[in-house]
UniProtKB/TrEMBL annotation:
Residues 6-405 form the Endonuclease GajA/Old nuclease/RecF-like AAA domain. This is Endonuclease GajA/Old nuclease/RecF-like AAA domain-containing protein. Pfam families: AAA_15. It comes from Sinorhizobium saheli. It comes from the Bacteria.
Length: 424
């Protein structure tokens, strides 16, 4: 899969009528329209095209779809042309992908029985697919942008059951997301663990590179802050503070006396030189540690951001990840099984965690009526929260809700206007 966004879509004979053309924003898009205007059909057509879902494409009334992509880098605009073919045995769907206007097309033909019926070295045959969650199973997927589709329907959201209940698609989705989220957050733990290891290695190597310190540097240090920072470093590696707290205090007591003697130009003993020199060397350790903490905050910012967003939305509940990166919900100091959350809370968790696990990489987020079961306040904040978790997402939502759109009126695609243009 390659990093690109949808730029334009042209559909020939949409709904068996005339051609339509739609220009998309690279960040946010809302497809709105009255019932019967083709809003759901259009979002399903986009989804099926980007997933290489030949089975669904066969059920939609159109003759040809041309999608122009906007690349994340470079100037060439790739295109995907999808045609319904009826002039070969057992009607097929033909995919033609071009990396640029001048490049040779790569074609795939999907037939019901996956039997090659054309002798063309440029054609590869693939079976009809229909798995919404497994875009990568289609051979065409390697040329398409990563796309997430959330088919949230009232029937699914109203079902109840446990995570292990195979009859509950919503809880199945949550279970899958928990596994993926845990894996992603554990990878962040691994990144930080490597940085801790580098910090330790650099410290021990510094002991072999002794230099003569300038004693006047010590008088410029805030020793109280230095002591606090050093205690934080030791706390990272030792759970029992009795093993280090007194030693740290004694060192800084000696350092304060020695620096005071130096500032007052009093004679310095050998121990004074050692105390001042060690303090300067420890300051460099503290500086490196502070840099590491900034890296730590940046490394875990997706996890922190997700938890903060969810906690700001939840009412009478709290959320956190445990030490194994498993999601935990609490109410009245009691743990709540995620299967017992309300349908709206489940949907919120699904949508936010889906954005989180994209690891801040470009992807296209598709959903039909994402407002279902969401409180109005949640609807207003949904798109902003998704973009907050991953600013590189292109959002394409079909919706009836003005609250989902909120202040993004310029990103609205009105099906009535598109259909009206068909009749002219």
């Amino acid at each position: 899969m390659t990093a690109k966004y949808v730029d334009t879509i042209t559909v020939k004979e949409f709904l068996g009528q005339k051609d339509i053309f739609v220009k998309f924003d690279q960040s946010i898009n809302f497809i709105i329209g009255l019932n019967g205007t083709g809003k759901t059909t259009f979002i399903n057509l986009i989804r099926a095209s980007l997933h290489g879902d030949s089975r669904s494409l066969k059920e939609i009334d159109f003759s040809e779809v041309l999608i122009t992509f906007h690349p994340i880098s470079g100037k060439s605009k790739p295109t995907l042309l999808i045609r319904r073919k009826h002039d070969i045995p057992r009607a097929a769907v033909v995919y033609q992908y071009k990396a640029s206007a001048r490049s040779e097309p790569i074609e795939f033909v999907a037939t019901p029985e996956n039997r090659p019926s054309l002798h063309n070295w440029n054609l590869a045959f693939l079976p009809f697919t229909g798995d919404d969650d497994e875009q990568e199973r289609s051979p065409i997927a390697e040329f398409l942008p990563k796309t997430i589709w959330l088919p949230l329907h009232r029937g699914l959201l109203s079902q109840k059951g446990t995570i292990a209940d195979n009859k509950n698609p919503v809880d199945q989705k949550i279970s899958q997301l928990i596994t993926t989220t845990t894996k992603y957050l554990s990878s962040l733990d691994g990144i930080y663990a490597k940085k801790i290891e580098e910090f330790q290695q650099n410290y021990f190597l510094s002991l072999l590179n002794a230099t003569v310190e300038k004693l006047d540097e010590a008088s410029q240090l805030d020793l109280n802050e230095e002591q606090i920072s050093l205690e934080q470093i030791f706390r990272e590696f030792f759970k029992d503070n009795t093993k280090y707290k007194n030693s740290i205090k004694n060192h800084f007591d000696r350092a304060k006396r020695s620096i005071s003697h130096f500032s007052e130009e009093k004679p310095l003993r050998y121990n004074d030189f050692i105390a001042i020199s060690d303090t300067i060397r420890l300051h460099k350790l503290v500086e490196n540690w502070n840099d590491l903490q900034k890296d730590k905050d940046e490394t875990f910012s997706p996890k922190t951001k997700f938890s903060n967003l969810l906690n700001n939305l939840l009412v009478n509940k709290s959320f956190r990840f445990d030490e194994r990166n498993q999601p935990l919900f609490h109410a009245n100091n009691k743990k709540i099984d995620i299967a017992n959350l309300s349908s709206g809370e489940k949907q919120l968790f699904i949508m936010l965690s889906t954005s989180l696990i994209q690891e801040n990489t470009p992807f296209i987020y598709l959903a039909d009526e994402p407002e279902l079961s969401l409180h109005i306040e949640w609807q207003r904040k949904l798109v902003g929260n998704l973009r907050n978790l991953n600013p590189h997402a292109q959002i394409i939502f079909a919706t009836h809700s003005p609250d989902i759109v909120a202040g993004n009126q310029r990103q609205v695609i009105r099906m009535e206007s598109i259909i009206e243009s068909l009749r002219r």
